[in-house]
Amino acid sequence: MSTDTPETVADGTPTRAELAARVEELEAALEDVTATQDSKKMSIVATKGTLDMAYPPLILASTAAAFDYDVTVFHTFWGLDILHEERSKNLQLSSVGNPNMPVPNAVAAVPGMDRVTTKLMERKIADNDTATIEELIETSLDMGVEFQACQMTVDLMDYDEDDFYDGVTVGVGAATAIENMMDADIQLLV
Amino acid sequence: MSAEFDISETLDVKGASCPMPVVKTKAAVDGLDAGDILEVLATDPGSMSDIDGWASGTDGVELVDQMEDADVYRHYVRKTG
Fold first, then answer.
1. E strand intervals along chain A
2. Among candidates B15, B25, B58 on the partner chain, residue whose Cβ is nearest the Cβ of A68
3. Catalytic residue flag (residue B18)
């Protein structure tokens, strides 16, 4: 046997084999850290389903995807309606409780007024060439945004997984949302 | 309009408003080769700040130039990697 690479050294100096194993271990650890840094992550929780509140999570999700972020949007309660293929095309806006809108609450509460307010907003959206909710969902899905439908509220609202856009993840709960937030560089509740 | 660099592709997002100019720019850049320059034509005044911010915060792209020209904002983005 060669004396160049002794198996053990009396004074406690690591052997060549031990050093090689340690280098391999450190290289693997470095790779993990580098991989984590490479993929930036954003986690959004979307809880609202009015026409105005459906926009912010979708605009931020699609824009972050353009920045190469891995984006997850967890939709719960009324936020589920944004993912609901039929309901997302018919989201409503109410002036009730919104003093910034030019309709007094007493008038806004009259039956049918929400339809009027919604139609006015939809017309503004069309006139301004603002993307529709459907366009933003489809664009975000194309860009790799993961939309998640909270299972507890899917059951609560009596929705079916077929009601949602193709590509929406179902069968997830709060722990999945927390797990995504733990890994994320940006976390938002809308 | 004469640019001092070769434009590989032009993306017309005139009329589109936030977030579409940035989102469509990203999609167009993904289809280019390294070194190619994308010209983006927009009417959204916010696109000046947004495309600048997007290019600064995104790996593999570089904003070469921006200019306003008769109500059209022109952006030149190079794919670097």
1. 40-46, 69-75, 146-150, 169-172, 186-189
2. B58
3. yes
CB contact under 8 A, B19 and A131: yes
Please tell me the distance from the alpha carbon of residue A80 to that of residue A73, in angstroms, as a whole number.
Answer: 11
The active-site residue, picked from B7, B18, B23, B72, is B18
When computed from its CA atoms, the radius of gyration of chain A, rounded to whole angstroms, is 26
Cβ neighbours, 10 Å, residue A83:
26
What is the three-class DSSP state of A190? coil
Task: Nearest chain B residue to A127 by CA: give it.
Answer: B15
- Residue A87: which H helix or E strand, with range? none
A176–B contact, CB cutoff 8 A: no
Residue of B12, B24, B26 to mutate when probing chain A, most A C-beta within 10 A: B26
Q: Give the closest of A66, A129, A130 to B22, CB-based.
A: A66
Q: Using alpha carbons only, give the angle B13, B31, A141 rounded to the nearest 5 degrees.
A: 70
Q: Could you read off the pLDDT of A118-174 as tens digits, one per residue?
A: 999 999 999 989 999 999 999 999 999 999 999 999 999 999 999 999 999 999 999
- Residues B20-73 have pLDDT tens digits of 999 999 999 999 999 999 999 999 999 999 999 999 999 999 999 999 988 899
Which CA distances in Å does B64 have to A47, B23, B47? 40, 18, 15
